[in-house]
Each structure stands twice: as C-alpha cells, then as structure tokens.
Amino acid sequence: MAFILVTTLMQVMVSLTPVTASTTMTEMFQHSGACNTQHGKEEDDPDYYTTNSNITHLPSASGFMGTHGTYRHLTVHEQTAVLIGEGKHGMWRIQGAGFIRVYRTQEEEGIKQEDKDNALDGDDEELNNILVKHYTHQDGSENRDHKHSFGEEISKDGFLNWLDLTIYHPKFGGKYKDHPVMDLPWYYCGLSGADYPHMGNVWKYVKAQKNANRVGPLGKRAGMDVNENFNAILRMEMFGGGGVYTNVGQGNPQTDLMQKTLEELKSRAQTVHYKRIDDSRIDTEFYILERGYHNYPESYLIIGMVMDSKVNPADYSYVRPAGRYYDGIYDQFKEADILNTEPNFAPPVYVKDGGGAEKIYGMAIFGHNHPTRQKYGLNGGACPTKGGDCSTYPWGNSGAGWPTDYEEITPICDGIVLDIKLWADLEKSWESETIGLGNSGYGTQEVEYSAHVNHYGKFQDPWLVDQGIQNPQEVDFTEDGNIVQKAPDNVDDIPVVAFTIDFGQKGDQLEFEEVNLDPLLKGCTAEEKEKEKLKQCSGLPVQWEHVTTYPSSFPVPLGEVMTVNCWGTNFNFTGDSKITCKGGTDFEFKKQPKCEAVPHCEEDKVRDELKEVQEEMEKLIEQLEQSTCPSDSTWRVPSDVTGKKITRNLLKTLKEAGDNDSLKYLRSWKGVKMTNSLARYIECFQTTAA
User: Fold this and answer.
1) Cα–Cα distance measured from residue 330 to residue 444, given in angstroms and rounded to the nearest whole number
2) Are the beta carbons of 231 and 292 closer than 8 angstroms?
3) What is the C-alpha to C-alpha distance for residues 12 and 5, in angstroms, rounded to an integer?
4) 94 FRET partner, CA 20 to 30 A, in 153, 288, 445, 485?
5) Is residue 150 located within the same domain as residue 199?
6) Chain segment 594-629, per-residue pLDDT in tens
7) Which of 464, 364, 354 is nearest to 414 (CA)?
C-alpha cells in the first residue's frame, strides 16, 4: 500500500471521477442531505444525490392499502420492496382457462352475433380487423354498475359487447404462440380498494423497475404473464418465518367438511386446523399484482400465489378437454404434454412433519377474518364456491374471480392462507461480490483514499504493554511517530496522506428506473381533500417571519387576535397593542383562525384579503427598517450571497477570492440563511461595531 503526502483534502478528492446522480423524483429523496447524516454537500452540488463514495442515492417510499379494516404496507428502500400485512391471509383458488376477454369500444363498430363463431376462430381477416380496431382487453364503459360488462352481451345495435378470445387468437399478434400450457390454478385475494388511493407513487415506481413484470415458471403456467389480463406484477419471496398454511381439518370427516345446507349451518360447526405446508414437497411462487377487478379498468392490488407438487406433477394440473383453448394447444404443440383433464375439487396437500397427502378443506364463509361483514356495511359473507366471474357478488350466480376462469376450479375458500411477509429485489441481486464496493461509484478498479496524518492503533492497555504485545495492524502516517492528541484550531492546516486500494475488480451499484411521479391524489383521498377545502376557516392562519434590524415596535391590527413570538416568548394581543422586539432577533405574527366554515367559492376572496393584510404589514416593517442605519460603512453583503445559507464552502470561496471584509462580517452567521432583512441588519449594525 503506497502513499503520498498531500497538502489538503481537496487535492486528494479532485482526482476522483464521480458517477452522475439523478436529481428527479425529489419526493422519494427526502433522506438525501438530511441534517446530521454527514452528507457534506450543498443543494447546488451536482453530486448532491450521491454518497460520499459517489454511489447514487436510491429512492425511498412507503404506502399502505387495506380491506375490511386490515392494512398492508408496501415500502421501497435501497431497491428492495417489502410488503408487510397480516398473518394467515385467506386465499381463493382460481384458474384462467386460456382466454382474454375483449370489450367493444362504445359507439364503435363491432362483431355481429351471427359472426361470433367466425370471430372467435380468428380465420376471417375482416373480422380480425374489427377486433383489432374496436375491441380492447379492458372495459371502457366507465360504469361502476358494470352494465356494459354484465348482462348486456349484445348492444342495442346488435354488436357483441365482449368476446372471449384464446391467447392464440390473431388479435394478439402471435406473442403467446410458444406460451406454456396454462394448467395450474393460482390463489389470490385483494389487498386494496379500487384505485389503491393510499399507495401514492410507490406502486407506480415499483412496476417500472427492471425486475417488475418478470413471471416465474409456475406463474407462466397460471397465465400470469398474459399482460392483457394482468396490468403489472412483481414476484416476491417470503421471509422472516412467514409461510403458507392449509386447513386439513381436525380428523373428523363428518365435521371437517364445510356446511352446505341451511340445516347443517344450524346443527354443527365446521372443524378447522391449519398446518404449515411442506416446502420440500410443494413449490410456491408469490406475487403482488395489479388487475382490473369486476371487469372495471381501474385497478386493484392483489396478492397471488401459485403452488405445484413435487410429489406428483398432476396433483394441481388441469386443462378442460374441450373448447378453443384445448384445440389451440394441439394446434401449437403437436405433442402437448397435458398432465390432467379431470377437475380436482379436493386437491391433495403435503404438510410439514406430516406423512402422505392430506386433503385441503375449504369453508362456506367468505373468509376466516370476515365474521360479520354486514356490521361494517359490506355484503355477502359466504364463499361463492365456484370459479368464474365474481360479477355482482353476492347477488346472482356469481363466481370467485374473472369471467375467463374455469367454473370447475372452485375457490376452496380459505383452504389456503398465507402470511403477508414478502420482499423482492427491484434490480440486481445483493448476492454479489461487487455490489456496494468502495469503488462502485467511480467505475475504476483502484480508488485513492485519504486520511489525516496520525499514529493509529498503538496499544496502551497496561496489561498489553506489560506482556509486550504490539498491535500487528498499527499504522503510523506521521513523520515523527508522535500521536496527534487533539484537534487543531484549523483542521485545514493538518496534512493528509493519500493511498490507493486496488479491489481487483470494478464494483457495481444498484440502479433505478426513473418515473414521472403523479402529483395528484387518487380516488377517495382526492375526495377527502376536496371536502377539507370546503371547511376552510374565515381567519386562515397567516404568519410573517422577519429579522428586526433594531429594537422595533409592531402594531397589532385592530380587532384581530394575534400571537406574537419574539425571541422565543409568546404574547397574545387584541387590537391596537404593540410589542417591542430586540434588534437582530426573529419574530412572527400568527392570526388565530375563527374556524367558521367558508363556502368553497369564497376561498379565493379570503386569501386575497389576507394577502392585502400581509402586504401592509411588510410595508410597515420595511419603513421601520429604513428609518435609521447608524453605520457609515460602504460594505454590503454580496448580491450572490443573499438568499443562500452561509456554509463552510461559501466562506472558503470568499477567502480564496480575497474578500476579507465579507469573510469577517459573515463568519459568525455560519449555518444561517442570508435573507434581505438579515443582510440589512449586518450592514447597519455589525459594521458599526467593527
């Protein structure tokens, strides 16, 4: 390890080549430059959003979502997403049948009923063109009553409002021609309400990152990569003891089954026992995903899981042996390997420390954490017990999921539950030798380091000295071998040594994809904000902050209740009172709100009135400040300093420029922002003392 003696720390650092950091998305960079974090950079520094080793700062954000009064929290820190919710979250089983439902754009041309079969086959070019131009995979009716999606398959003009096309249909351009057979069900449950209003920009950021929208092999067999059905998706992993549990009953076949009749509901309880599944015999993949629910384009956030048996590949596999998707499989794959064509209404499961296969028992209830939905304004409460479109649940013959699901793959409600304790890397894996190395921010194998000259690591413990034990890692960067015992008056006068570390390879750092953050609130949060505006007070809080140039008295407007804060002391006044503030100290006025409701249309009027009052007060203060200035000095605060914070770097710049007067008068104000009022005070009063 070679080293050289240099005169200042700045000389060492000039040789480094920093990586440019992003200055966008400031909402997610509140941590950058926070006080007492040894950040050491000014806001105008081009490397402000980097660490002191030039590694780019990464976004940080949090949001939450909830259903039935239960909340889940999604956070992103250092390109790691963490989803924390409740334990034993109930799941429903569903399975896509290999189709994509497309909806006719309203007021547009469509497919006539008599042409439906030809359109579904995809062999008629004219019909295919109509499907491409006038049908989309999201319902565009913008009708929360779902009239376009449910019940009105044929429009008044005789056009089909929707069709279910196989993933092999020409409308989709052949992008699924090599897709694995969709033979696995998945388990799901909603995490959020419509629009996920409390997530802010967190999910928008997450779904734009490199590792988003990458689906694993089990997810593909469940059709989760069919992006017409899934808007966005992120694969996650369980951590911290979280797991998947299954209800295998208490060993009584008569009571372990769910109640199926009114008489059974009255006469017996279902016996339930959840046991942890055996990871050594069951593969799992976990996802958080975004999907339009109830066929409405506004999305919901959903948790999903796919299971596959390591014991018997046919345990969970199923394809209905009829229909266009089944036929399409054999058109695409001449020797397709379809493992099972018999629906399994009670699939096997393997539990930890268990023997052979056990049976998954569902329940007749909506979910084990939903005992009294009606009490909280929610409908239903029973398991729909069949697959297919959830439609107008609990009314009608509704299913458990989406219209393109198999009905025969029943939900087995809460037969499977999982702990919402998941994480995911949003970019590179941390399982790397190079992530975060000290040279990662410079793009070089070697990095030059610096240290203040001293004698480091010399043992002084009496026992060690008596034993003659010396520190084999002791280093001496001094010329005389002496320890620098205390900090000097001017640390810049102490030399530093520079030395090189060769890491043997270039380091790497985590990166992120920038997104245009949405400044607007969504859904119910926007509605709540609007209601809050309607409750504005007629005496809206107003404050003025200034620095007095000399001891001054300030009047309080007649009839108004004011709080005056002068040098940390509060005074309350009502009309025609005055308060004297010591020269050079901060003070503020705050009008107390009357809290009388103001119609929304009068809000601007109120603000205009308050603005006039503020302008009048500022004129008065300006007059008082200009009434006398005892100093006859010609020195003035440099114009390029006004509006900035007095920092060490700024003072150093003044010193290097030879501006000794500015350095003399401004040094004592280090850490303070130089306002016009403060500049006036210094010019008038501090220069006199000088």
Assistant:
1) 54
2) yes
3) 10
4) 153
5) no
6) 444 444 444 455 556 556 655 665 666 565 555 556
7) 364
